[in-house]
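Assess the record.
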Amino acid sequence: MGSSRKNRKAIHIDKEALSTLALVQEGLLSPIEGLMDEKTAEEVNHTKLYKGHSFPFSFILAPKGRRNEEVLVSLEPNEEIDLITDDKKVGWLRAKEVFRIDPMERVKEIYGTQSLSHPGVQATLKRLGHYAVHGPFHTEYPAIGKIKESITRAKNRIGAKRTSALMMAARPLHRAHERLIRTTLDRCDLIVVFLLKPFGEDNTLPYELRHRSMEYFVKNYLPANRVVIVPLEYTYIFAGCNEVILDALVAENFGCDELVIGQNHAGLGSFYDKNHLQSVFDRLQGFKIEISTAPEYAYCDICRTLVSSRTCPHGEHHHISYHADSILQLLSQGLLPPAVLVRKEISAMILAHLFPNRFENLEKIYYDLMPGSGLLEHQSEEDFYIKLMKLYQTTSLK
């Protein structure tokens, strides 16, 4: 968009707020259609419902900053202002109401806690002001529209009757992730893998590397025309105890018929009610999407394959669990995880990224240690790790 008109008021919002507004604009948080006024916001915070549909908290815009708050309290009814991100106009908003909020109560609605030791609470308080604004808005954010188009094209290409959604960080992509994708694909026509792209993520495993890993697995080991990988910008509203509810809402509005989550998902929130085990989904209203839980997978050293607790008769002491944080710690220390944990090509991509130019004389190491064709060939660090894993898997000497 062009620059704002001279002397026109403006508020500055970050990319995370812009992305969240764009989700609503594209209908991906439907039935939410816009920023709520004070009365509606209080009602939603109290009832957890909006237009008869479950929604965990009010949808408001309350940007932090002295200049922003000065602008907000000065607005006249129906006054139009610019939305600015990184010194560029990205939209407009017509203010119908400005009202005061309590930032601490707001973070409690989102995260279920006000504890400053919670990283989400800390991050949100840094960007949350004391005044919220209600009114129609428009943003320029084409990325989300392109995702909707890619999913529609994928469904039309194969005539998909049933589409399932998986929300995955894949930090890193390991064998249990692969099994989950395969078992989901068994019962649907198309899978949409929403690869999470949080704001402010660290550089250990950036989105581009995680996407490349997922794309490699899909193209080489799955019917690729039945899987579409799309980024999901994971803004602050998805955090905390409401994550699963909003995942289901977004997946439904993207046109998916089913959302598959792991039974140990942090946001599932099982509890007992009148002696019956229930979860957060038992309280939801207005959802049409089917929500399925998948078992936790482990590798059994007796079965010698990936199993779930439902199918394996052996105890947990025979199981190798797939804890992403521990696998990532191995990689971060420069260690090549066993292939039973992570596919060797995926490990090679990650190690080559984490430790670029690690070897002083890579060609010599190749020549000394690796079997080859006898011809001089250029070898990359990724190739080296893959061939090293093959040496690890040699079984004639024990």
